[in-house]
Design a protein that fits this description.
seven-stranded parallel beta sheet; Rossmann fold; 8 helices; alpha/beta; 269 residues
Amino acid sequence: MSAFQIKDVVAVVTGGSSGIGLATVELLLQHGAAVAFCGRNEERLRTAEAALRGRHPQARLLAAVCDVLNAEDVQRFAAQAQQALGTASILINNAGQGRVSTFADTTDEAWSQELHLKFFSVIHPTRAFLPQLQQQSAQGRDVAIVCVNSLLASQPEPHMVATSAARAGLKNLVRSMATEFAPQGVRVNGILVGLIESGQWRRRFEAREDKSQDWAAWTGALATRKSIPLARLGLPREAAQAITFLASPLSSYTTGSHIDVSGGLSRHV
């Protein structure tokens, strides 16, 4: 039996072709779930799909090109996923990188883009898949929505003012949806991630001034500068484990909550 009790459950992951999303797809497959995942970049999506199929040849897997900011795209993805794999019981909303900017240099257009991305990357998939989740709940199955968020939602950074504000709004949205969907048996939770290894950090590493530093030394120094108590960056799989817990029946009495996955970076009690 799967440790997460999700064998044969249908799960959906947005932004699943890299980083935390891809690690989550992998973990769900390892524990026997059928997984539909999407991404905007077809080349990256197909590369991820091929790697996953190579490691999990018996898996029930669907990879679809989809822009979560396009409502029609997401509705098509929802119908395609249901036809290919069955009715979804799990939705993982995972999309959107941060925007580095201060209040002084963030234009109206940048504000609009950032707020639109952070909210509608959750709103569109939730609208599209909610009927499937409600159908599963009505049949007595555990169903869940998990939103990947950032520690910026609770601990804003002045150099990421727009992203911090948008992330705080998403945290509030998770709590609001949790309250509204609870009578329908749909749980809604999130995770707050700190600094997680990613392509963005790898690119910064490649551009480092001191080429004598290896990845471990460079990220260790970064963690020290950022005052991360665990003295390292997090791994995508570590975030995926928290996501999968919240998506699984192991958290069946948890809704409207967030798990901090920041290595102790949070300064809040």
